[in-house]
Amino acid sequence: MEKVVIEKMDFSYPKKALLFEGLDLELSRGKVVGLLGKNGAGKSTLMRLMAGLLKPTKGVVLCDGEMAFDREPHFLDQLMFIPEQIALPDHLKVGEYAKVYRDFYLGFDEIRIQHLLSDFQLGLKERVSNLSYGQQKKLQIAIGLSTRAKLILLDEPTNGLDIPSKTAFRKLISANIQEDQLVVISTHQIKDIDHLIDQVVILEEGKIKLQADLDALEEAFVFGQGAVAPLDAIYTETHLLGARYIAKSQGESEGSPDLEMLFQAVMEGRIQGQYLSTSNPVMQ
Question: Which of 102, 120, 145, 261 is most buried by its number of CB atoms within 10 A?
Fold first, then answer.
């Protein structure tokens, strides 16, 4: 999977107002992309459009130049979509359920699934019906990573996971993603994808307000904190111990971008546009 390209796309549900209008977006392989937005911004719908489960009202969603909605067999072999709500068969054991996916994905990695199930503390002989919601999520994530699909779409994958499992999730995503894969993670729990993603896409009311590589953001801005914010700060949050802020970079850097602060700055219109490593940053 080289890239996903969305061009001039409109979409609305029947008898509903347009959710997306003239949407353009390009995502390339080798990235872990965080898709952020408030509830109702269109994150889950955008995921389903990329998976070919919904058809654009206008425009196209292309995966390596082919219509996602056509859902050709070779496209499905390279696609793994894990929705927020999962319906799993009650009568199967964990090992049997994993075997179902092995039969559908040509690149299914038998060794990887064994390691991932062990890392998530899931036994092969446990019945799926006996798993908690969080355990079911971990099972689906383990299977998704084992398919070696080139396009992996994860919708709210950390919902239902406890803190140790969220830590394990971040480590396993980092350790099991290869350069020929594109992973898109939709979440409203911004802290869960800290130090995991390479690129962030922020949606608001069906529009892309920001698409940025984190290393490009680090070059363009300072995400700092201190007793007071500098006068030229673009965005400021005050608290009892001082202030956190975003300011334009003058060549200095104070660490990785703070995703929660970035999200609030975008919601307030302080930062918008594209900041991509392969192109000049554009601020609108």
Answer: 145
